[in-house]
Amino acid sequence: MTSDVEHLSTAGRSLLDRRSFLSNSATALGSIALTQLLGSDQLLGSEVKTPKIDPARPYAPRQPHFPARAKNVVVIFCAGAVSQLETWDYKPELIKWDNKPLPGGPAVTFQGPAGNLARPQYEFRQRGETGKWVSDMIPHLAELTDDFAFVHSLTSTSNTHGPAENFLSTGFVLDGFPSLGSWVTYALGSESQELPAYIAIPDPRGVPQNGSNNWGAGFLPAAFQGTTMTASDPVRHLAAPGVSSKADKAARSLLQRMNERHLEQHPGDGKLAARIASYELAARMQLSVPEISDLSTEPEHILKLYGADDVENKNKAGFARNCILARRLIERGVRFVQLFNGAYASGGKLNWDGHNALKEQYDVHAEVLDQPAAALIRDLKQRGLLEDTLVVWCTEFGRMPFFQKGAKGRDHNPDGFTCWMTGAGVMPGVSHGTTDEFGQKAIENVHPLYHFNATILHLLGLDYEALSFEHNGIQRRLTNVEGKLIPEILA
Amino acid sequence: MPKYLGLLILSILAVPGNLRAEPIDFVRDVRPIFEAHCYDCHSGEEAESGLRLDVKSAAFKGGDNHGPDIVAGKPDESPLIHFVRTDNEDELMPPGERLPEDDIATLTRWIVEGAVWPDGVDTVELADRMDHWSFKPVQADEDAELTIDDFVDRRLNEAGLNRAAPATHVEWLRRVTFDMTGLPPTPEEVAEFRKHPDYEAVVERLLASPRYGERWAQHWLDVVRYADTHGFEVNTERPNAWPYRDYVIQAFNEDVPYDRFIREQIVGDALGEDAATGFLVTASVLLPGQIGKDEPSKRLARQDSLDEIVNNIGQTFLGLSIGCARCHDHKFDPISARDYYAMQAFVAGVEYADRPLNTPEAQKQRRELAKLKTRLKEVEAELAAFTPFVGNGAERPMVNARTNVERIRPTSAKRLRFTVLATNRLEPCIDELEVFDPDGNNVALASSGTKVTASGEIQVANRHDLTYLNDGTYGNSSSWMSNEKGGGWVILEFPADVVVDRVVWGRDRLGKYDDRLAIDYRIEIDPGDGTWVPIADASDRRKFDDAAKTPPFSTDGLPVEEQIAAKALLEEEQQLKKRIASSEGAQLVFAGKFREPDTIYLLNRGDPEQPGDVVPAAVLSSFDSLELPVDAAEQKRRMALADWIARPDNPLTARVMVNRIWQGHFGIGLVETSSDFGRSGATPTHPELLDWLATKFVENDWSIKQMHRLIVLSQTYRQSSAVDDPAAVAQDADVRLLWRFPSRRLEGEAIRDSMLAVSGELNLKMYGRGYNLFDKRGGLTGFEPVETFKIDGLRRMIYAHKVRREREAVFGAFDCPDGGQSAARRRESTTPIQALNLFNSKFTLDRADAMADRVQKEVGEDVQDQIVRCYELAFARTPEAIELADAEEVVLEYGLPVLCRVLFNCNEFLVMP
Questions:
Q1: pTM value?
Q2: CATH 3.40.720: which residues of chain A?
Q3: Which residue in A39, A176, B573, B594 has its CB near the most CB atoms, within 10 A?
Q4: List of chain B residues whose C-beta atoms are within 8 Å of the C-beta of residue A207
Q5: Beta B480-481 vs A417-423: how paired, if at all?
C-alpha cells in the first residue's frame, strides 16, 4: 500500500485496496464477488417463489412475486398489549354499563377473577373527515386517522404475552420461528448495501417482552436476523476498542492480502470470495451506521416535530429519536424497520400491560408514543416516502372490557383487538371488522393475525402461500396454512 | 347444522317425481356432479382440506375439518349436503357457485338411499403412502468386500466424474481434527504426523480424546434444541438442565451403543441413567405462573408441551414430522391424527420438572447434604447464643427488623416493659417478644400464663393483634402494631417471678418487612416491687441506618472465652455453607417428572376444547400394530416406545442416525433433510450406501465410533477439497456426488474454541454448570453480553450456559441455533455482521493479546520466529517468504497482536480444509 492513501478512512482505504485487487487478481471468481454482492439479482423473476439465496450476497435486492405496492416497512410494535377500548375501538355501551357485571361474562380470565365492566378511561371524539371516534389518549395520532386503515376484529391464539408476541411476529406461538422482518428480507433482500437489511429498534426503556424472538431468523439463514440498534446504542462491534486507527487499517489490509493469497491457492471457491466480500461490506457499515444514527444533522424543526427536544420526558425524547432514526433508515433503503414502543414485563410500568392501574400507566405511555409516532408518519408523508413505505401499528392482543377484580386495569384479551396500517398500498380511512357491543370479541369479519401478516406480505408483492422454507419436513410459512388477505383495507 | 335443513330435505323428497324415480346410480348420476363441480379442489393427493371425492375410501373418511362428509341414509347429518345448501357465503361449496337444485336433489336422494358407491368403479387409486423408500426394510449389499468408496465411485462413474486426488497429509489432519474434536491440531501433532503419517493411529487418538464427545454432543444438542433456560417471554433459568448436556458428552465419549442411547433418553429412569431423560423436556415451556388461570389456557399449554415431546422423538429418532398430524392427518406421510395422539399417550405422564437423580452417588450426596444442613442449624443456634451483654463497653450491632437479642445477667422479674421511643417509619410493630430464663424457656408465651397489656394497638384481622405479641408465631401477619406513630409500649406480666437472662424481639422474623422497626427503645423489669428498672436500650447499639445491611455476626463485646468458641463456630459455619452450596442442586436434573399419565383424547383440529375418543398409546399404525392398554403404567409406556424405536428392524432408526453421522462429517447428509425421511423429504443421493451404512451400524452393535472410523478413513473423505474440475462444477456444484471433499466454514463454537486453543488459553475443564455468556442466566430481557472472559469463561463453548434465543454476541451470528426449534443441520451464512464481530470484538482482541504473549514466551523476541510460530499454531504450516515479509512489516510497526487478530479472521483459519 502506498503512503499517499494513508489519509483515507479505513473503509476508503479498504475500497481502494479492493479496486487494486480487482484489477490485479488472477482469480476471476474473486473479482466477481464484490460486483455480485452489490448488484441486484435480476434472475429471480416472479415464477420463482422460493428465493435462492446466494451466501455471497444475501442482501442483494430480489424481485417480488408480483408488482409491489410497498417497497419497505416500518412496524410500530406496542409491546404489552394496548387496550383497544382506550384507543381505537369506541364502545359507548361501556359507559352505560360502567361498573356493572358483564352478563354471562367469564368468572376467570388470564390473571384471575373478573371484576365489573369499566368505561373507556379516556374521552372519545370524532376526528377528521371520516369522523372516526378516537380517544383523547393519543391526540396526535388521532389527527391522522383519515389516513389509517383499521382492523378492529383481530384475534390471537394465545393470551400469554410471550407466545402471543411470537404469534404476532412469527405466526407461531412456539419459540424458534422466523419473524416477519426476516421473511421479508429473505424474500426481497434490501435496497441498501451499506446497512443491515432488517433493523429492530428497541424502546429506550428496554427490550420488548418477547425480546429477540420478535426479530429472530428462526431457521432461516442468520443473515436475515434483525440487527438491533437505537438512536443512542449503535450496532455492536463497529470498532475495535482501544485499537488505533492506523493499527486497525494495517490489520484490515493485511487480512485482505492474506485472504487474497489464500483465494489464489483455492481458486473457484465461492465461499471464500463471499467471506472476503463480507469484510468489505462490514467496512462500509462501520462508516454508514454511525452516520445514520448521528441525528445532529437533523434541523431544529424536525426535532421539535417528533418531540426529540423534550427535556422533561427522557423516554419520549428517546423514542422520538428512535422514530427519526427509523425515517433515516427508510430513506437509505433499509427494507424492514421494527420500532418498539414498550419494554418488558414490569406490572405495566414499562409497557402497555395495564392490569392494575391502566389509566395512570397509559397516561405515561401515551405521551411517549403519540407525538413521535405521529411525527414519523407526517415526516414520511411530507418527504414522499409514504408512497413506497408501509407503516404498521400493532400489538399482540387487546384487553377485556371489564376490570380485574380489585384492580383498575384490564386483563388479556386475544378475542378481538385492533391494529392498523397506513401508507403504500393501504386504503385510507377504512375501519374494517367489528367487535361486540363491549369490544370483547370480534364478531364481524373476524381476522386471526395470520390475515394481517398475509396482507402485509401481499402489499410487498409477496405471495404469502408461496413464500416458504423447508424445515424438518415441513414447508413453513409466516401464515402457516391459515393465510388469507384482508382486501378491504387495500387501496 | 341448521335445524330447518331437515324440513327442506323432507320437502324435496315429498315431490312425487323424486319418489317415483329409479334409484340413484353413483357412476351415472353422482360422479358427474362431483367431476363437474368438486374435483377441481377435492381430488388427488393434495386435495383441499384433505377431502377427496375421487376415491371411495377417502370420500367416506372425510376431510380434516369434519367427521365423515357423507353419512349414509342421513343427508341432514352429512356435511356434503350442508355445504352445497348453506346460505352462508363463506361456507358455500363450490365457493361462490350454487349447484343446480336438481344436482342437490340428486346428491340428497343418493344419501337417503344409502349412499351406495360400488367398489371397483373409481378411476384412480389412493397412493400407498407406505410405498416410500425409507419405510421399507433396510437392504444391504451382501458383498463383504465393499467399501464406502465403491458406492461413491459408482455414482461418480455414472455421472462421468471422478474422485479428486487425495488431500495433503496436513490438510487431512486438520480436517479430521476439526471434524472429530472441533479444534485444530497442535503444531506437535502436525510434526508427528508429517514424520509418521499413520492415519489409523490419528483416528484412534482423536476418538479416545474427551474433546471428541464435546464436539459431537453439540451436533446432538442442536437437533434436540437443548438450552439452559425455559424459553418464551420470561425465559427463566433452567438451572439443572446441564446434567443432560453432560450425559450426552459422556455417552459419545463412551460410545454408548445407539440403541441404548435411544432407550436411555426416553426411559433412562429405568436404566440407571436419570440425566438422559432430559431429552424429553428440552423444549421451551411455559411455567405455571405464565399460563392463564382459565382452564382452556391450561389445557392448551399442556397440549403444547406434550406436542414438543412428540416432535422431538419423531424428528430426532425417526426423521418424521409426526407433529404435522396434530390438527389433521399428515398431508404426505402415513400418519393419522389418531397416530399422533397415540404417540402423545406414550409420554402423557411426563411433566417438565426437575427430578432427583437416583444414582447411588446422588443418594449418598443427598444424605450428606441433609447432615450438613442439620449441623449448620446447630452451629447457627450455638452462635446465636454468643451475644454480647448489654452494656459490655463495646458497641452492640444496630437493631434490625429480624431478630434482636438483649443478653443480661440473670435477674428476677415479675413484669417486663418494652417501650418504643422511635421507629424508622410509621407505628411500631413487634412480631414476637420473647423472654428467656437461663434454662432457655420462653417465659413470655401466653401459653405459660403470661398476660400482655399495651399502650394501644391497631387491630387488623388475622394480621395485627396484641395477643399475637406472645403467641409463639413469627411474621408480620402475627404481630402487635401500636396505634401511635413512632411510639408505644407493651407490658408482660408473668404468672410468677421468673429469672430472665435474655430478651429477644423482632419486627418480622419471616423476612418480608423492614418498616415499623423500633430503632430506639427501652426495656425495663419490675422485680416485684412496682418499680421499673432499666435492663437494656439502644444507647450502646450502633446507630440505626436504613440503608445498611444487617451486619454479620461479630465477636465484638463477647467475653474472651466466648470469643474463642465463637470464632471456631464461625469458621465451621463458613465451611458448611460452602459445602452445602457446592452440592445443593447437584443431585437434581431437569429430566422430567413422571406421574399418572393424562388421558389422551383425539382432539378435533388439535383443539383441546374439542376432545373426541380416548386414544391409547400405540406406535404409528401404518408401521406396526403395537398398542398398549389405555391404563398402561407410565414407565411401561415409554419403555415400549423406546424398544420399538430401537428395534434393529425399524426401517428409519438406523438410517436416520447414520445419515446424521455422515452429515457431521461432510456437512450435508446423504439425505439432505436429515430430520425428514418422510415422503416430502429429500431422496438419498446414495441409497445403497445409506442402507449399507445402516446395516454396518446395527451389525457393529450400533457403535457410533465405528461409523466414524469407516467414514474418516475412506478415500472419499481423504480427497482434496480443491475446486479444480470445471466439468464437475458444472454438473454438481453442490458436491452432492462427492467429487471432492466439500470444505466448509467452522461453526461458531468451533471458531471460539479454536481461537482459545491457539491463544493457549483453552480451559479443558469438563462438565458441570455452564459459564455465563451474559450478565444474567435467564429472565425477561436485556441480556448484556459478557465481554471479558476468564478461567471458566475460557472453557469450550458447549459448557456455556445457553440462554434460549439469545445468540452469543460474537459467535452467535455464525449460524448458532437459538434453541427455539430443532436445528437438523447448521446453515452456513456469510454476513457483514460476522465480520464486524470477529474483527472488532473484545473477545478477539483479548485472544490476540494472549496468543502474542504465548508466542513470545515460546520463541522469544525474534519477530520472524514469532510469525513462523503464529502460522504453525493457526494454519499448521510455516509462512512462505512473501507471507513472512508481509507480516513482518506489520508486526514491526504495530506489534504481534495485530497479526494474531488478523489470523483469527483469515479464511484459512475459519474454513475446514
A1: 0.76
A2: 72-234+299-489
A3: A176
A4: 781-782
A5: unpaired
Q: E strands of B600-722, at which residues? A: 601-603, 611-614
**Which single residue is written with the C-alpha cell 482469480?**
A27
Residue whose entry in the numeric block shows the C-alpha cell 473423505 = B717
Q: Write phi, then psi, for B269 (nearest 5 degrees).
A: -65, -25
Residue A260: CB atoms within 10 A of its CB come to: 21
Tens digit of each residue's pLDDT, chain A (491 residues): 333 333 433 433 333 333 333 333 333 333 333 333 333 333 333 333 678 777 667 788 999 999 999 999 999 999 999 999 999 999 999 999 999 999 888 888 888 889 999 999 999 999 999 999 999 999 999 999 999 999 999 999 999 888 899 999 999 988 889 999 999 999 999 988 888 899 999 999 988 877 788 998 888 887 888 988 888 888 899 999 999 999 999 999 999 999 999 999 998 887 888 889 889 889 988 999 999 999 999 999 999 999 999 999 999 999 999 999 999 999 999 999 999 999 887 788 899 999 989 999 999 999 999 999 999 999 999 999 999 999 999 999 999 999 999 899 999 999 999 999 999 999 999 999 999 999 999 999 999 999 999 999 999 999 999 999 888 777 899 999 899 999 999 99
| Chain A residues touching residue B909 (CB < 8 angstroms) | none
Collect all residues of chain B within an 8 Å Cβ-Cβ radius of residue A177: 820-821
Q: B740 and B720 in contact (C-beta within 8 Å)?
A: yes
| HEC assignment per residue over B872-902 | HHHHCCCCCHHHHHHHHHHHHHHCHHHHHHH
> Any CB–CB contact under 8 A between B204 and chain A?
no
Which amino acid is residue B471, in one-letter code? D
SS3 of B487, please? strand
Residues of A in contact with B297 (CB under 8 A): 110, 159-160
Residue with cell 423472654: B435
C-alpha cell recorded at residue A139: 391526540
Phi and psi torsions of B561, nearest 5°: -65, -35
**CATH architecture assigned to A72-234+299-489:** 3-Layer(aba) Sandwich (3.40)
| Joined grid coordinates for residue A237 | 462491534
**Residue contacts between A and B (CB atoms, under 8 Å):** 260
Give the C-alpha separation, A17 to A6, whole Å: 12
Looking at the complex, does the CB of residue B650 fall below 8 Å from at least one CB of chain A?
Answer: no
Nearest by CB to residue B824, choosing from A106, A176, A472, is A472
State yes or no: ipTM above 0.85.
Answer: no
Which residue in chain A is spatially nearest to B880 when comparing CA positions? A261
Q: What is the DSSP string of A99-167?
A: TSPPTT--SEETTEEEEEE---SS-EEEETTTTEEEETT-HHHHTTGGG-EEEEEEE-S-SSHHHHHHH
Helices and strands, number each (H, E), in chain B? 30, 16
All 3 cell numbers of residue A98? 360502567
Is B266 in contact with B280 (CB distance < 8 Å)?
A: yes
Report cis status (omega within 30 of 0) of the bond before B79: no
Task: Report B:79-108 residues touching A (Cβ under 8 A).
Answer: none
Q: Note the residue count of chain B.
A: 913
Q: Do A246 and B308 touch (CB under 8 A)?
A: no
| Residues A474, B324: C-beta atoms closer than 8 Å | yes
Chain B residues in contact with A222 by the CB 8 A cut-off are 812-815, 827, 829, 831
Report residue B111 as a C-alpha cell.
344419501
Instruction: Give Cα separations from A294 to A325, A380, B12, B77 (angstroms).
Output: 9, 18, 77, 68
Mutate to test the interface with A, among B776, B831, B898 (most CBs of A within 10 A): B831
- Identify whether the C-beta of residue B741 lies closer than 8 Å to the C-beta of residue B164: yes
CA-CA distance, A397 to A110, in Å (whole number)?
12
H helical segments located in B335-443 = 337-346, 360-385
Instruction: Give contacts of B 710-729 with A, CB under 8 A.
Output: 722-724, 729
| Entry field: residues in chain A | 491
CB within 8 A of B461, min separation 6: which ones? none
